[in-house]
């Protein structure tokens, strides 16, 4: 079942009432059941949220994204002590062996590259070169095949003049917004499963509190790429309808462990799988297919 995504564009007053979120805009008020909500994006910076609602949102593990004055995601709401075994899990997390982490990163990069190839094929772009590179992905991606593929992939997807470093490009703006939504969704599951988001598999920046989320998001990025390549044109702005469509990508269907499920549920199961690896309950990180 697909859960609701709330997008707060106008100045609103958000409060908690009997397992309901009350959204009041001027004289208009509506309510939404907590059990029906997956993600909330709050774009309007004049919106008021009661502390009671903030508390219930973290308790219910609902993904909440706050936007800055440029209307881009700037922060997320995360709870603490979401798992009764947090200390045990995080102690196990930091002692996972380097060879094991290297193998997991190989699997993540392989999954990402395969998904990138499928997107190009689906869009009738040249994908054969990427397929040839898959066999070269080794432990810890020592040859940095991920970067080699990315350099080819984005130019094939958006044109030879495209650069991910151009902040003025509408494609980049939409990609960044979509990636931020996916990243925040993974973060809330990491907290729920007692994992420390800062302790990554491959990413290890001391300045990044979400290294692990940045590892696990990689195979999911092509889902956002596909949307941008299909629907975004050069003369467009990053408007409300596009942001809502990006939110709904969490409801897209993927194949995980031979089952069809939403992207959001797949993220949850992959995080749970990684927790099991940290606790030595399983060896392999199972990833998904498009």
From TrEMBL:
<comment type="function">
    <text>CRISPR (clustered regularly interspaced short palindromic repeat), is an adaptive immune system that provides protection against mobile genetic elements (viruses, transposable elements and conjugative plasmids). CRISPR clusters contain spacers, sequences complementary to antecedent mobile elements, and target invading nucleic acids. CRISPR clusters are transcribed and processed into CRISPR RNA (crRNA). Acts as a dsDNA endonuclease. Involved in the integration of spacer DNA into the CRISPR cassette.</text>
</comment>
<dbReference type="Pfam" id="PF01867">
    <property type="entry name" value="Cas_Cas1"/>
</dbReference>
<dbReference type="GO" id="GO:0051607">
    <property type="term" value="P:defense response to virus"/>
</dbReference>
<keyword id="KW-0464">Manganese</keyword>
<dbReference type="InterPro" id="IPR019855">
    <property type="entry name" value="CRISPR-assoc_Cas1_NMENI"/>
</dbReference>
<dbReference type="GO" id="GO:0043571">
    <property type="term" value="P:maintenance of CRISPR repeat elements"/>
</dbReference>
<keyword id="KW-0479">Metal-binding</keyword>
<keyword id="KW-0540">Nuclease</keyword>
<dbReference type="InterPro" id="IPR042211">
    <property type="entry name" value="CRISPR-assoc_Cas1_N"/>
</dbReference>
<dbReference type="GO" id="GO:0016787">
    <property type="term" value="F:hydrolase activity"/>
</dbReference>
<dbReference type="InterPro" id="IPR002729">
    <property type="entry name" value="CRISPR-assoc_Cas1"/>
</dbReference>
<dbReference type="InterPro" id="IPR050646">
    <property type="entry name" value="Cas1"/>
</dbReference>
<dbReference type="GO" id="GO:0004520">
    <property type="term" value="F:DNA endonuclease activity"/>
</dbReference>
<keyword id="KW-0255">Endonuclease</keyword>
<dbReference type="InterPro" id="IPR042206">
    <property type="entry name" value="CRISPR-assoc_Cas1_C"/>
</dbReference>
<comment type="similarity">
    <text>Belongs to the CRISPR-associated endonuclease Cas1 family.</text>
</comment>
<comment type="subunit">
    <text>Homodimer, forms a heterotetramer with a Cas2 homodimer.</text>
</comment>
<feature type="binding site">
    <location>
        <position position="203"/>
    </location>
    <ligand>
        <name>Mn(2+)</name>
    </ligand>
</feature>
<keyword id="KW-0460">Magnesium</keyword>
<feature type="binding site">
    <location>
        <position position="146"/>
    </location>
    <ligand>
        <name>Mn(2+)</name>
    </ligand>
</feature>
<dbReference type="GO" id="GO:0003677">
    <property type="term" value="F:DNA binding"/>
</dbReference>
<dbReference type="GO" id="GO:0046872">
    <property type="term" value="F:metal ion binding"/>
</dbReference>
<keyword id="KW-0238">DNA-binding</keyword>
<protein>
    <recommendedName>
        <fullName>CRISPR-associated endonuclease Cas1</fullName>
        <ecNumber>3.1.-.-</ecNumber>
    </recommendedName>
</protein>
<feature type="binding site">
    <location>
        <position position="218"/>
    </location>
    <ligand>
        <name>Mn(2+)</name>
    </ligand>
</feature>
<keyword id="KW-0378">Hydrolase</keyword>
<keyword id="KW-0051">Antiviral defense</keyword>
């Amino acid at each position: 079942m697909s859960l609701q995504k709330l997008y707060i564009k106008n100045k609103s007053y958000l409060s908690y009432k009997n397992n309901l979120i009350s959204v009041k805009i001027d004289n208009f008020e509506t309510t939404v059941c907590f059990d029906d909500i997956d993600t909330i994006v709050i774009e309007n910076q004049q919106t008021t949220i009661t502390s009671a609602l903030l508390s219930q949102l973290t308790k219910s593990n609902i993904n909440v994204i706050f936007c800055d004055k440029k209307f881009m995601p700037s922060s997320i709401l995360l709870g603490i002590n979401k798992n009764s075994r947090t200390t045990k899990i995080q102690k196990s997390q930091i002692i996972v062996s380097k060879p094991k982490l290297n193998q997991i990163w190989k699997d993540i990069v392989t999954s990402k590259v395969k998904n990138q190839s499928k997107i190009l094929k689906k869009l009738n772009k040249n994908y054969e070169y990427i397929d040839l590179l898959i066999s070269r992905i080794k432990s810890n991606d020592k040859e940095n095949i991920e970067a080699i593929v990315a350099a080819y992939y984005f130019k094939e997807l958006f044109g030879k003049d495209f650069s991910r470093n151009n902040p003025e490009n509408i494609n980049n703006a939409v990609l960044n917004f979509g990636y931020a939504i996916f990243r925040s969704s993974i973060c809330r599951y990491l907290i729920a499963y007692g994992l420390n988001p800062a302790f990554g598999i491959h990413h290890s920046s001391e300045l990044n509190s979400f290294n692990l989320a940045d590892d696990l998001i990689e195979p999911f990025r092509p889902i956002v790429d596909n949307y941008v390549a299909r629907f975004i044109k050069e003369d467009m702005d990053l408007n409300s309808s596009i942001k809502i469509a990006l939110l709904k990508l969490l409801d897209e269907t993927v194949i995980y462990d031979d089952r069809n499920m939403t992207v959001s549920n797949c993220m949850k199961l992959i995080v749970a799988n990684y927790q099991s690896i940290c606790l030595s309950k399983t060896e392999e990180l199972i990833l998904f297919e498009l």
